[in-house]
User: What shape does this take?
Amino acid sequence: MNLGFIGIGLMGRPMTLRLLAAGHRVTVWNRSREKLAAVVEKGASSGGSPAEVARESEIVMMCVTDQRAAEEVLFGADGVTAGAKPGSIVVDFSSIAPASAREFATRLEAMGIGLVDAPVSGGVAGAENGSLAIMAGGREEHVERVRSVVMHLAQRFTRMGDSGAGQATKLANQVIVGSLIAVIAEAVRLAEASGVDATRLPEALKGGFADSLPLQIFGARMAARRFEPSLGAAAIMLKDLENAATVAKEKGVPLPMSSTAVQLYRMLAAHGKAEQEISTIIELLAGGRK
Amino acid sequence: MNLGFIGIGLMGRPMTLRLLAAGHRVTVWNRSREKLAAVVEKGASSGGSPAEVARESEIVMMCVTDQRAAEEVLFGADGVTAGAKPGSIVVDFSSIAPASAREFATRLEAMGIGLVDAPVSGGVAGAENGSLAIMAGGREEHVERVRSVVMHLAQRFTRMGDSGAGQATKLANQVIVGSLIAVIAEAVRLAEASGVDATRLPEALKGGFADSLPLQIFGARMAARRFEPSLGAAAIMLKDLENAATVAKEKGVPLPMSSTAVQLYRMLAAHGKAEQEISTIIELLAGGRK
Assistant: This one.
């Protein structure tokens, strides 16, 4: 199928590579052009703009940093809407506010373009292995039309409801993941301070109630104080948790745990570490010690 | 082998049944005698006291509620130490303070009895399936002597260090599990309030970064507001998190997330719900709504 992919970052790159490996024709665009090389050398075509990507594609996928970037890619000059044919579908893997996803869907629908909000969980490793959990919002017919393509990327692609429901589910997901990563830092630090070799924690707890991908991936990094290569910046998590806090405030939902996590990520940012790997949260608890 | 098992509760019962099914001879004791029937009818012998269990057993296992119960079982009148032969080993699956585990080990060692502190994670389902993660502290020779028996109960039995290291690891485990359960409640409630069917969350997030046994087990119960049969009282988690807080205070470890979790479990207790299933924590966030 003729696919487009906009946003060739940490997630977009392995996702695009999987689509190419599955035999699809993929036209790509990225704000900084130098990131395109990794996918162009594997067979992707470079588009000159989001509009050009959309002109070449039946399904346009995108995975960008935040809602400002998503809005620009969709509706800016030479944006997707400047090139997309009526009847085409946009699948937005970005994590943005549910209200923005609903608004974007309404605007696109007026142009005859479908939007599936489809934020992902599972990180870079999940994108590489095609084992992401993808949570979708939008019309059922649109979700089903893109399912076979999305399943090259995901072990699970679940329609949670109408437009915005994918993003709302992602916020619930991030409430868990962002808080859990902070909690894992506490467990690692407590074990260290108790004289236990914390580098053995992920293996020792494997398969039990405390086990999770974040324990195996970020817990191991925290215990080893190994933060490279980056698997995702603290700033991205902070943005998601702030979005969750906004929705929670609107709906009157108490979030005592994840509110504390917001403060910790904001503290990381206040220490000038917003762009560092999320596992550096251990340093808030430990200082320079280990 | 001739084994003893003291404490035939939610965890001890399925653990004893697995040991019997593996062909071991098991002598059992429990404070309330009526709980013995379930294992006696599967072939366990009923001992009249912990001392009598110890007299019949090369390895005495125990899984009791807290450290007062553990101390009574070990050192009380007709306790394990009144019957155990020098050279025998006690494996304590209970979750108690690391300092108490170290103290018990020292007292037992003076009588020629070995102690392995071996708290478990994985809940009733893990005990039934033999898939517990068990974290051990004690002498390496003692841990290895009991390994083949313990492996009937566990998918993982990891020596983390000397006496107390198993308990210290369990506290790290509980910092994660206790906090995670509170965080899952927030995610379930946020999804509900956003109009997403939260009963689909565990399935939708399966395999992603937010996935865990607590999401699949307690998250599903929270979304369905189904708290029976009980899989463990909030009071047990509160005790473990208070133990973690005590160690953290001694060692100067900041625990912002799990301190918040302690307050939530204490709030449950203040609402008279200490003995209710831990998933009832969702009601703190939701009131009677759903």
Observations:
- DSSP finds 13 helices and nine strands in chain B.
